[in-house]
Specification:
Blueprint lengths: L20 E2 L2 E4 L6 E4 L20 E2 L47
Antiparallel strand pairs: 1-4, 2-3
Length: about 110
């Protein structure tokens, strides 16, 4: 079995605040040899073709492991990328509970 590893750096401005679910996808090949892969694939047989927008198949992720604690309280403004989510997710009333870091698992 072939194994590959990857490291990805995603600017925080690409993520909306209060992210709680995640999935990652890979598409390889062309035509009949095209392969679709997912970190959390849909294995229940309900989908006949790939659909990357089905949030119900995403799984919980502990963002406290890799996103600064203050990020989820107000939009993050990245000096290079700006604040992509300010119009989509404007400031809220700030009534969210602080995140608690979990040490028992990676994500």
């Amino acid at each position: 079995m072939d194994v590959w590893k990857s490291r990805v750096e995603i600017p925080l401005s690409y993520l909306p605040g209060r992210v709680t679910k995640f999935n990652a996808y890979g598409i390889h090949g062309t035509g009949d040899e095209r392969v679709y892969e997912a970190l959390y694939p849909v294995t229940d047989g309900k989908l006949l073709k790939p659909d990357f927008h089905k949030l119900e198949y995403f799984q919980r992720i502990d963002t406290a492991r890799f996103i600064p604690e203050s990020y989820n309280y107000k939009p993050f403004v990245d000096m290079k990328y700006g604040n992509m989510w300010s119009l989509i997710c404007p400031d809220d009333d700030g009534k969210y509970e602080p995140r608690k870091k979990k040490e028992d698992h990676l994500f």
